[in-house]
Automatic annotation (TrEMBL):
Organism: Sphingomonas panacisoli
Transmembrane segments: none
One protein family per Pfam: Acetyltransf_1
A single GO molecular function term of this UniProt record: acyltransferase activity, transferring groups other than amino-acyl groups
Name recorded for this polypeptide: GNAT family N-acetyltransferase
Domain N-acetyltransferase, residue spans: 2-169
Keywords (A to Z) from UniProt: Acyltransferase, Transferase
InterPro entries reported for this sequence: Acyl_CoA_acyltransferase, Bact_Acetyltransf, GNAT_dom
Length: 169
């Protein structure tokens, strides 16, 4: 049975492992190993995702199966370059491990993310998605997200072509 709860600081190491696994399984073949390692360490190392669990600017929700984290969603302040209204919140990550994809976990986490944004009086939710991640793009479009621009997402020294998407609440 899948359970959902807010992440706790003690979840940091397990969250980092899940994030590394999801990212590597989905995108690992696109990068040189040194670029991938640099990105994974920055995004999911001790100063990345694990530290955000105890940072009040971020909120992380986990999905568990028999106590093990199998997916998560993180929302927080917008980190994209440019001027963003204070009423905009970013959906930073929504990851579900492969064996549980298609099991309805992502919609539960997305509903939580949008509810969290509304509870914070956000007017818009913004995210970036890799241009060739068609499954994720279709998922976000079902929720009403629309493409609003391009974003260069760096993985180590390699630039990726991402798209910014926005949902007005």
């Amino acid at each position: 049975m899948i359970d959902y709860r807010d992440a706790k600081p003690a979840d940091g190491p397990e969250l980092a492992q899940v994030a590394r696994r999801c990212f590597t399984e989905t995108f690992g073949n696109l990068y040189r190993q040194e670029d991938l390692a640099t990105f994974l360490d920055a995004a999911f190392g001790t100063t990345g995702l694990p530290s955000h669990v105890s940072d009040p600017a971020y909120t992380v929700r986990v999905a568990t199966d028999d106590g093990a984290i199998i997916g998560f969603c993180k929302v927080g302040p917008v980190v994209f370059p440019g001027e963003w209204p204070e009423t905009t919140i970013e959906l930073h990550q929504l990851y579900v491990l492969g064996p549980w994809q298609g099991e309805g976990i992502a919609p539960v986490l997305m509903d939580w993310a949008l509810g969290t944004a509304r509870n914070r009086d956000a007017k818009d939710v913004i995210l970036s998605v890799y241009i060739d991640n068609h499954r994720a793009r279709r998922f976000y479009e079902r929720y009403g997200f629309v493409e609003i621009g391009k974003y260069t997402f760096m993985v180590g020294d390699q630039p990726d072509d991402d798209r910014l998407m926005q949902l007005t609440l």
